[in-house]
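Quick one - inputs below.
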Amino acid sequence: MDPIKKKIQNKSKETRQELIGKILSYSSILLIVLVVLSIFIFVASKGIATFTQNNASLKDFFFSTDWSPTAVGKDGRPLVGALPMITGSFGVTLLAVLFATPFAIGTALYMTEIASKKGRNFLQIVTELLVGIPSVVYGFIGLNVVVPFVREHFGGSGYGILSGAFVLFVMVLPTVTSLTVDSLRAVPSHYKSASLALGATEWQTIYKVTLRAALPGILTAVIFGMARAFGEALAVQMVIGNATLMPKGLLSASSTLTSVLTMGIGNTVMGTVGNNALWSLALVLLVMSLVFNLLVKWIGRKGRF
Amino acid sequence: MDVGKYDLNDTAIMQFDPQEREMALTTNDLQVYYGDNHAFYDGSLQFERYKITALIGASGSGKSTFLRSLNRMNDGIARVSGNVWYRGLDINSSKINVYEMRKHIGMVFQRPNPFSKSIWENITFAVKENGVKDKHKLAEIVETSLKSAALWDEVKDHLNSSAVALSGGQQQRLCIARAIAMQPDILLMDEPASALDPISTLKIEETMMELKKHYTIIIVTHNMQQASRVSDYTAFFHLGHVIEYDKTKNIFTFPQKKATEDYVSGNFG
Amino acid sequence: MNMKTVNKVALTTIKIIAGLVVVILAFLIGRILIQGLPHISWHFLTSPSQEFIAGGGISYQLFNSFYLLILTLLISFPISLGAGIFLSEYAPKNWFTEIIRMAIEILSSLPSVVVGLFGFLLFVVQFKMGFSIIAGAIALTFFNLPLLTRNVEQALESVSDLQREAGLALGLSKWKTVIKVIIPEALPGIVTGIVLGAGRVFGEAAALIYTAGQSASTIDFTNWNPFNAASPLNWSRPAETLAVHIWKINSEGIMPDAAAVSAGTSAVLIIVVLIFNLSARYLGNKLYRKYTAAGK
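Output:
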């Protein structure tokens, strides 16, 4: 029989290589999916246990301000009021993004609309370096610079939501900036040239054309910034004061979901109500990060122009 | 000129007598779909061994799509139905070992695509994978294939330098040499000279004339002079149909169909 | 105000904002270096830390940080290479791939503290590994995987399809073409991503506090048998890193020179991270030049 004909009909070295390649790449990707799934399953099962096994009230968790999981309240249920931490987390996040957004948009506009190539590259390096600084270093600077600054100029101990927000402001700034730059770059240049040709000033063009066209992208950038701020643990924990009390203002010692988690997990025993309650906080973090993800997806779908 | 006026089902396809001549490849009712888009209809052509067959037609006529289906380069890109007969096997069948098949049905692409490796490695890479390890044997293959592709004299002194540094024409001849080094039966060429200057084009055409002593060549070209210069047979493609297939001389002097006549005489679209 | 004045004011404001961002970075880096550099000495880098008295160094933490980084890259690189190859070369265009991409996005946006807690729950507690380098390396792998995978995918996708066709048309398997042709082409991009990821991993602390632990067990730098508990290479010992050290000192450090030690440690940390970032940038630029030169 024709040897070539025979070869073409049979398996060869290449068929084996292809099989090995598929096995390797499929198993790598499945491993990642498995990791994501197990993170959700493990954290969720632990976090739900507070309510199913320890009989805590879901309503208390979200609306009560008494956080003392090892003690029980008058109704005999553990005191798992997470409202102070939830408030703290949202407080620092919203405030940080509020500070960061104008800075990010300004910097991004400078990079895309005003700067020379050199200036743009320089700011690119600046934002990349800001991303690169580890969060504990931000926390350390926060402790040494931001906390005394807040104490002197705003009063109080210096620990609190305001300090946390200042630290997070610098941390999310590069994220929001670089994503805003991407969305500004995606605005077709003929939009701008048309506006300029009609006699609009540069600022009118930026304000009425460029920013408007880039709005969905900028929103996405802000949400990514919020996601980063919401999930940041150590830098915030170092400057917020770590009191599981309802914040009385921006200057009182408070706590966030992440700060209570980092402080608490080591001091509680696995399987106790005190420990489970912490996992419930972790579950809130997990769900929020999912929500931020979905929001970004939703805007991406709605905002296509 | 309105190109929609031709009857696409009015075709004149030459049939060979298999008793008389040896066929290297035969297609039967080949159809190609990109998703829902029916890109190529009913290609039933025979390709004679040791001849050059040219596939001509305007861009979008389906000639490249057809060619790429002959060694399954459309796998994963398009759905191809029908049969491609090679050595008594339908190589369009899922049971075929495509890797092994492609070693015998090689391809040269429109844009030169040498690997970013040395000239030597470009030629020996697949040969070594195919089991040839002996240094002397490899040196011999490099020399003969480069000579067949008319590139040997230009590169023999720097075989270890990068292939990417060669000129476009040299790169394309290197790609031809790389394909020849596998000693295929059939060489499919997809507009191999379209990205090249006239001198390089001429060199490639000379190379092809030399190659047809040992290889069956099927070449897609939009250059009619090229088709008439190098090919023995020519098939004219139009809007996903093969309109006419005949000896090259007949296609260019006595075309039977109006569409072919308009195309070869330049009165087309 | 007329339009021209508004325009001028607005543009000036934008410039001032951009300038302020530069000032913030300069202040941060300047402050860390000015405060920290005076404390960095050969003694500081090569002696173990002290809990109650002044004069402690960071030798263990420095070694642990690099060892953890290397282990993390050793685990995460092959996985992300495989996953990146899947996404760029094999992924079918269907719901399955969509779900996978979604999962990777979610993993990349998870707070690192959550990743760390998961590592604690599964490896430290469930698998009884205890606080250990290997548990830390696995947690950091989860943290590093999504970015590295996406980076590999992008690097592979930037290689022209013509190269893939060249390999396939010679009868090579797709896998061989990817390994021997596409990956070498994509290498500079892949390396840039690894180095950038290394910078992130090196500075990460939240994922490590409950996995690699917060104590630096005594290391005997003359014993290189990985199965000996005092060996630097032993991966089942708890291992505090530089980043965790900074956090630890500032939260509960009681040595008299805590401020100086954390300033010095921050400076060391920042210098290493800057080196990683700048070299990634350098590699990226080199790659860019290579491509633009080849495009001529």
